[in-house]
């Protein structure tokens, strides 16, 4: 069981989550259960920066879509509902495709029902992602330059099949391919977000320090976007992020978090001496809690 107390708009909230032995899960706010957990998304915005965030660069497009889905869903509940509905329909369409081996066995009426809804949802999700990226990119570039002291040139690009002038026809033309592969090959589930160092893939040409600076800039930009759209400062969680960052980048990041008043910040680090040294160097007002063997000291 986890419980947290929050204050927002001068109101107190208690959030409670529990998981029972047999797997049933409850999620409550002020002792009232949500009908759907998605109703809680964005209610208390937060941003987590953690060591595994470089998976955004190293892994496939699903990780990058998840990052931007997380951002947009905290801002726009209708987008979240559209993504949930899209994923359900795409899974249903794939199941239908797996049930047939050729055109003669395909339930075209059911396929048409899926396709009409998926085409609409594709457009809704694409337009929202496109709009957010246009707003997000300049902010990201500015924050990255602050972290790197303008030593590197980076960029962020949104790649989607829906950039085509005739996506709907291409979607329908892909049916034979979909039947052969038994899955839907066209749609926003194939979107990707390209992370570039100058004009080259960051994954291949970026150092560990450059990659980590890139994802930290992504997360701090996420913070600024949430602050703007939610009209409140998200909680910022910094989990063991100083590893693989050189001293200059650590200094600039610490100064940004301190000087720009990011609100409530939690820092976890396996080296207490490093955090205390940084706090002393940058005059940070920190409250220290030490944990040993799962116990708070």
Write structural notes for this entry.
The protein has 297 residues and is an alpha+beta fold. The chain folds into two domains: 1-40, no CATH class; 41-296, RecF/RecN/SMC, N-terminal domain (Glutathione S-transferase Yfyf (Class Pi), Chain A, domain 2). It is built from ten helices and twelve strands. Strand 2 (11-19) and strand 3 (25-29) form a beta hairpin. Helix 3 (77-98) packs across helix 4 and helix 4 (108-148) crosses helix 8 (208-230).
CATH architecture of the largest domain: Up-down Bundle
* CATH class category label of the largest domain: Mainly Alpha
Task: Name the overall outline.
Answer: globular
Q: Sheet bearing the most strands, described? A: 4 strands, antiparallel
Number of domains: 2
Count of helices?
Answer: 10
Mean pLDDT comes to 89
Number of strands: 12
Percentage beta strand: 15-25%
Which secondary-structure class do the elements indicate? Answer: alpha+beta
- The N- to C-terminal Cα distance equals 21 Å
Helix content: 40-55%
Give the spatial strand order of the biggest sheet: 1-2-3-4
Instruction: Supply the CATH superfamily name of the largest domain.
Output: RecF/RecN/SMC, N-terminal domain
Rg computed from alpha carbons, rounded to a whole number of angstroms: 22 Å
- CATH topology of the largest domain: the name is Glutathione S-transferase Yfyf (Class Pi), Chain A, domain 2
State the low-pLDDT regions, or none.
none
H/E topology pattern: EEEEEHHHHEHHEEHHEHEHEE
